[in-house]
Amino acid sequence: MIPSDKTQYIVPPNESITDPDQLCAKLCPNPEALKPIADLFPMRINSHLLPLLHAPDDPLARQFIPDPEELRDTRTDIDPLAEAKQSPTPLVIHRYPKRVVFLVSMQCAAHCRFCMRKRNAIMATQSDPAALEQSLAYIQRSRQINEVILSGGDPLMLRDTTLLDILTTLRKMSHVRILRIHTRIPIVWP
Ligand code: SF4
Question: Is the CB of 44 under 6 A from ligand 1?
Answer without folding.
Answer: no
